[in-house]
């Protein structure tokens, strides 16, 4: 059975990029090196470049041991979550600890801004797959898209990605996020193409906003246009944005603990949960009703939309 009191583990949940993924969240909410305009975790928050122990690694590994003992079934253990995971100074110790507990492959989802640091490259180099981001091919677009910490230099950021590629034998899956009118001009796309060629990732994964965002300028790019952009970037580029509507329920309701763990990360509408968990509304509604009856969650209204959150 799932333990509803996990503090650092999330899921497993379906992931478009990694299959069935157990999330490991070791950074407090919105603790990041950037304030990307497409972030779903809330509006601008203070940024930091300080690496420190934001969460106790021993406690995280204790939870993982319990999860494995309960019969963990996952394709990846994914270090990501509510903030930038490379800010944790114990990232390398965490990955080594995971490997001592299970043979499930380890993935790190990162914005990549700290890969210019040798210690960060060494830590990420312990993972099986690293999934960094690059949303701009020039400094001006970087500022518009990512609102980086003042001490982050764009050329140094890209150089860190290039250096990591030269040192790392594992898989690099580069995500490129597009917002209409910001990084979708012909020149912006060509600039990105040049940078991607320098980095030489194993995969280029093209994305856009398909869930509600807090910054209105983070406008979605349509599916046909996104496919066109992908072809310009690289013949291997794939669109990972999920524009599809979820299918009707098959009779299986959502796992209560997975829904509750999702809401502990941030309040969600029914649409948010459906998109994030890959489940239909018909599967989610009975779970939400039961969680409310158990006094586990409550609701609040924002901008004429109902959001669910834990009590």
How many strands, which pairing sense, and closed or not: the largest β-sheet?
8 strands, mixed
Number of strands: 10
Shape-level CATH architecture of the largest domain:
Alpha-Beta Barrel
- Which spans of ≥5 residues are poorly predicted at pLDDT below 50? 245-251
Rg, Cα atoms, Å: 19 Å
Q: Briefly note the structural class of the backbone.
A: alpha/beta
- In the CATH scheme, the class of the largest domain would be Alpha Beta
What's the N-to-C terminus distance? Answer: 22 Å
- Spell out the CATH superfamily of the largest domain: Aldolase class I
Estimate percent helicity: 25-40%
Tally of alpha and pi helices: 10
Count of all domains: 2
Taken in chain order, the helices and strands follow as EEHEHEHEHHEHEHEHHHEE
Order of strands in the sheet with the most strands?
Answer: 1-2-3-4-5-6-7-8
CATH topology of the largest domain: TIM Barrel
- Backbone shape: globular
Oligomeric nature of the chains: single chain
Query: In what range is the share of β-strand residues?
Result: 15-25%
Average pLDDT taken over every residue: 88
Index terms:
alpha/beta, eight-stranded mixed β-sheet, TIM Barrel, 311 residues, 35% helix, two-stranded antiparallel ribbon
Please specify the SSE layout and strand pairing.
Layout: E1 9-15, E2 19-25, H1 57-69, E3 76-80, H2 91-101, E4 106-109, H3 118-124, E5 129-131, H4 139-146, H5 154-167, E6 171-178, H6 186-199, E7 203-208, H7 223-233, E8 238-239, H8 256-265, H9 270-277, H10 281-293, E9 297-302, E10 305-310
Parallel strand pairs: 2-3, 3-4, 4-5, 5-6, 6-7, 7-8
Antiparallel strand pairs: 1-2, 9-10
